[in-house]
Specification:
CATH superfamily: Jann2411-like domain
Protein name: CGNR zinc finger domain-containing protein
Domain Zinc finger CGNR: 145-186
Bound molecules: zinc ion
Number of strands: 6
Helix content: 40-55%
Number of helices: 6
CATH class: Mainly Alpha
Largest sheet: 2 strands, antiparallel
Amino acid sequence: MADLKYLNTSVGGHCALELINTQEMVNGVLTDRLQDDAAVITWVEQTFMLKPAIAAKALNGDLLAGVLELRAILQRYLSNHQLAKKEFDHLNKALSQFKSYQQLVEKVGGFASQQRIVLDSTEALIGLIADAVCDLIALGDLALIRKCESDDCVLWFYDTTKGHKRRWCSMATCGNRHKIRKFRAK
Ligand SMILES: [Zn+2]
């Protein structure tokens, strides 16, 4: 497996799929976690484990729209594994705003490098999310990018299990519901 930069331990297993998972079913209703810029910042902090510490003035009001556009592009890509020219260009433009640099840090017995991400503007923040989307599209294995098998669930995940047989967003919710239904059907 290629080395994906944005794998994590969330339900989606990858930051870009967590972007998809900002929409989820709550009591049978499709609910969107990204309602405004503040919600986007909270989501970024949790998903990328960062403290963006973006001054309110650095946000020009286009954050939510920009992030939703990236989510829509990724959603379409997941459904047909293609990018329209317009989407391809849009992604590359967003990526060009991503700002990061390496810093040398000390560790026991030597040195290591650490990536620092600069989040000083709306565009830079959108650039970070675009970087995660690019990581998934360029390096992700399509066979491992899957939607939860439950028809009532819209969550996606990157299957990093050993046997690659993961079927559910979570065993505690969808997996368990499936088990109960199978049991009742007997
Ligand atoms: Zn599910």
